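User: Can you help me understand a structure? I only have the sequence.
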Amino acid sequence: MNERLTQLADQIEIITFDCYGTLVDWETGVRTAIREVSGVDKPALFDAYLDIEAAVEAKPYRAYREVLREVLARLAERFDFAVPSERAYAFAEALPSWPLWPDTNEALSRLKSRYRIGVLSNVDRDLFAGTAGHFDVEVDLLITAQDVQAYKPSRRHFVRTLAEMGGDRSRVLHAAQSLYHDCVPATALDIANVWINRRGEGNKTSARPIATFPDVAGLADALGV
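Assistant: Let's start by predicting it. Here is the structure, written out as C-alpha cells:
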C-alpha cells in the first residue's frame, strides 16, 4: 500500500467520491446523449461539451438542469444542429440512466464494510436520486451543488464536508477522476485525495493526490477491504 495511504487507513472515517466520471461512466452517458440529440457522433462534440460546461458552471449559480440546458444550446449553435424545444432538457432527462462503471458497486460495497461513503457532486439532488437507485449501498453523506449553491472546483463542497466531520481533515479521504474539479480544490484545502485515473491521463495541475488508481476497485484493494 502507498505509504501515506497506509498511515491514513486507520484514521479515515469517510471516503467521499465525485460521482459522475468516478462512479458513473459519465463520458459514455454524455456521448450517448449528444448523439441522440444531434445525430452526430464525433470526439469534437464531447471535447466542446467539457469546455462549455466548465464555462457555464463558472457563471453565477443556477440549477444543474439549467446548466445542461445552456450547454446543449451552445453545442447546437457551435456545431449547427437543431434542438427541438421539447428536447431542451435532454441531457438532464438522460442523466439518471447513465451507467455505473463495472467495478463501482462491488468496490463501494467493500469500502462500506469499513468506511462511511460520501458523494460530492455537481448536480441537483433530484437528478442524483435517479443515479442512487443504481447503487447497491446507501450513501452516508451527500453534498450537491444545489446544497452549496456552487460547482466544483469551488471549495464549498469540501468546506461543507469538513464541517460535517468536525473540521478534522484526518478523518476524510476524497477520491475522484477529475483533477480539475476535485483533486485541485481538495489539495488546496489539505484534504488527502486519491486520483481515480480512468482515462490514463497525466497530471499537469496543482493537484497532489497521495495515490493513483485506474478504478475504485484499485482503491479498495489498496485499503485491504
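Now, to help you interpret it: The chain has a mean pLDDT of 96. The two ends are 12 Å apart (CA to CA). Let me know which part you'd like to focus on.
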